[in-house]
Amino acid sequence: MAPTNDHPGEQAAQHPIKLIGVRDTPLSLDEVFRAVGDDAAGGVALFVGTVRNHDGGADVDRLGYSCHPSAEAEMRRIAEKVVAGHPVRALAAVHRVGELAVGDLAIVVGVSCPHRADAFDACRKLVDDIKHEVPIWKHQQFSDGTEEWVGAC
To answer: Which of 2, 18, 89, 142 has the most CB atoms less than 10 A away?
Structure first.
């Protein structure tokens, strides 16, 4: 049965941005999942970005994230764009800054929508736009003693 969008649950929520943050403390998948809970949502998409142990053929020991003071406001701006373009019931995004070890959570994003396809699309858009537009920079430290700065935008 095709959606008719005539039920309030099919429409975007009035205030769907539930959580936006840039933090220097460990991130919680549970916090993001709880933030995007909505009885009118049939689909919840979560993305968890972790620190991997390699990049470009080199072993990564650890990395650090730093950001411009406008980073959180930019994340909110992107979230508002995603909400305007998708039937989002609830949205949350948190990014870590500071020193992180391999396996640590760097970003956790969640989106709930009436249907799974919309949730997947909105979540991917949110993650991609945060990565490309928010002024957060990554400083990778490699096992061979070299290091590299990677701009997120």
So the answer is: 89
pTM attached to this predicted model:
0.90
Torsion of CA 119, 125, 127, 130, to 10 degrees: -140
Distance CA(68)–CA(29), nearest Å, equals 24
Using the 8-state DSSP alphabet, how is residue 71 labeled? H
Structure tokens at 59: 């072993």
- Residue 71 has, within 13 A of its CA and on its CB side, a CA count of 22
DSSP label of 83? H
For the segment 120-147, what is each residue's pLDDT rounded down to a tens digit? 999 999 999 999 999 999 999 999 999 9
Helix (H, G, I), strand (E, B) or coil at 128: helix
